[in-house]
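Dear Dr. V.,

Thank you for agreeing to look over these. As mentioned in my earlier message, I'm a first-year student in the group and I'm still getting used to reading structure tokens, so any feedback on how I've presented them would be very welcome. I ran two proteins. I've put each sequence directly above its structure. The first is here:
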Amino acid sequence: MTAASALGTMAAEGALLLDASVWIASRDPDDRFQVPALELTFDTDQDAATLDLTFYEVANGVVRRWGDAAAAAKLCRSVELRCKGNVVGADPSLLEATAEIAVKHGLTTYDAAYVAAARRFDWRLVSTDVRDLVSKGLAITPDAAV
């Protein structure tokens, strides 16, 4: 099965698209979403996917918050293992949808990319970004997803 067909199969089962904020929250004891985020990142009964962008965002977040390159690499490996290779890469139509969503909702293209991918595959986007994503009805919080 190719990566594209695997992603299509997951869409029929209602997978979760976990953004970088969920992964970082799962390792941050001071984050109010830490417990449900941790549960989501370990719940292998629920299909999960991510964007190729997530690896960069996770590494950036961990390095900026804790200054720990080894922890960043370890968490990125966790993302890869948990998502079982279900990684959405950029393509022209996804980038076009991303730009449209960014303009319409006043988002960064990074946040809009998650929304575009979730819409493409009919996944539930999970994020701790209450201000930009959850409050606009574009994502759900980790506690709503568990």
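The second protein is here, in the same arrangement:
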Amino acid sequence: MRTSVFWAVIVAIGALFVAASRLYLTNDYFYFAGYVVLEYIVLSTAWNILGGYTGYTNFGVAAFFAGGAYTSVVLHKLPVLLHTALGWTVPPIPLPAMIVAGGLVSGLVGLGTGYLSLRLRGVFFAIATLALAIVVQTLIVNWDFVGGSRGTYIIRPQNAPLGGGYIQYLFALMTALAVLAVGIARSIERSRLGLGFAAIRDDEQAAEASGVPTLRLKLISTTLSGALMGMAGAPLPYYVTYLDPASSFNLAYAVNSVAMPVIGGMTSWIGPLIGAILLGTVQQLSTVLISSAVNLLIVGLLLIAFVTIAPNGLVDVLEGPAQGPFAPPLNRARFAVRWLGLIAIIGAACAWFVPHLALVAVAPYWQAMTLLPFQLLAAPLFVPEGWLFFIVVSTAQLPFLAQRLRDAGRSGWFALLLFVPIVNLALLLVGFLAPTRRSRPHSSFDGETLLQKSRSHG
């Protein structure tokens, strides 16, 4: 697909997405949750431009993201400051202008950071970006104009420019930013600039010896990546209405921005998109159904699973094994095992979350159901057993792990894997046969409670 056609398609999809949300979504929670997922699409795509395309790991996402957020705070307070100090009457600055300004500020920070640190490579560059985040946070904490360590309140305007609630307006703006970020990433991938980034990622010394302007390309990468992160952070003060360093420099932004491209795939523009939608949706569901405290735990478990099963992300798995008459059978076997493992992971996540959502949807009509056999069959589905799904996922990974250990010559560890199915079977038996299983506390939407209600109703 040509680049111009791709831009037209994604712009049309974004416009239809916003229009459909206005027509069919009446609960503001969906806009709040969708805003976060779209925000992670922008952040992960921006990170992938430097980390995936160019091969430089950036742990300073929070610095660029918070730079955009506090740029909006400064511009929000600027009219009052000018009126108080100089007597000038300046109208409030619109949020789109703040987004552009946040992108410019964070882009300049990325340009300066790249010029000072891009001569470093590998882990040294990653440490330098992490130090950048600490330096920027220290500056923000000691800057009283933007609230310092105590934070600052931002009052949203009464009326949204596009009609509806202001959260709907923020949702539409973040959709536009997601479309912009994905379009830029895809355009880079299909251009000479993307080829230069790939040459730096594969072998920087060889690229430089071949005449590739490596420093110039790396500066472009850091500037563009930082600008997109700053644009993603600019609407944050209007989303949270109270901004402090703890929220703007949250560890989740840095962790998710790295984890989502890794899970989706760092060699393609669609990888961060898939990873952000998958991981962001799971985190939003876990915040509602379990607790927001387990979000980073979910990220860690998924990272471990995907690094083990699909080191190059979902995109690499979807491309399939090597084709042709010389493709080894083991390659096909590993491909099949990876697919089984990924299906087990996605199935475990769906089995954990979907029954809760389905139960919330059908709970008002549960007492009205008269088909008792249907209730008897459906009620056990609403009893989530997290450890059971962990067993399924870990067992699905065994063949691939065993093959890797065997290839590495670690026969002792390979032998230990034989005990894993035995342990899993023991856990299953303990879980199903333990007498205390039915007395443990659980959520109010418990399947056994529904089963009892259905029996009494029948």
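From my reading of the second output: Residues 321-330, 351-389, 431-458 have pLDDT under 50 and may be disordered. The chain has two domains: 3-249, 353-457. Does that match how you would interpret it?

Kind regards,
E.
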